[in-house]
Amino acid sequence: MVTEYCKGGELLDRVDEKHGLTEKEAAAVLQQILEVVYYAHRQGITHRDIRPENILIDANKKEIDDG
Fold first, then answer.
1. What pLDDT score was predicted for residue 57?
2. What does the pLDDT look like over 6-63, one tens digit per residue?
3. Are 58 and 7 in contact (CB under 8 A)?
4. Which residues are the active-site residues?
5. Mind giving me the DSSP string for 11-32?
6. Most buried of 6, 8, 59, 62 (most Cβ within 10 A)?
7. Is the pLDDT of residue 2 over 90?
8. Contact 26, 34 (CB under 8 A)
9. Torsion, CA 60, CA 57, CA 21, CA 24, rounded to 10
């Protein structure tokens, strides 16, 4: 498997750096995760290991940094 490089790192690392997320930040992240899972399921794809270590953040990181 080949994936693109995500400069923002893992979600878990970002949460640890910030000592948690605000409710607004968590809601934004959760909404994106749910949209991706919904899209994948419509394509017949199931991800069986969704956890913060497996969620990568791009270089923008706007949703987590700005809330």
1. 86
2. 788 899 998 999 999 999 999 999 999 999 999 999 999 998 999 999 888 887 765 5
3. yes
4. 49
5. HHHHHHHHTS--HHHHHHHHHH
6. 8
7. no
8. no
9. 60
pTM confidence score = 0.74
Separation CA 54–CA 47 (nearest Å):
10
The pLDDT score that the predictor gives to residue 5 is 77
> What's the N-to-C CA distance of the chain in angstroms?
32
Q: Are 36 and 56 in contact (CB under 8 A)?
A: no
30-51 core/surface letters (b: 16 or more CB in 10 A; e: else): eeeeeeeeeeeeeeeeeeeeee
Give the total residue count for the chain.
67
**Structural contact between residues 22 and 67, judged by C-beta atoms closer than 8 angstroms:** yes
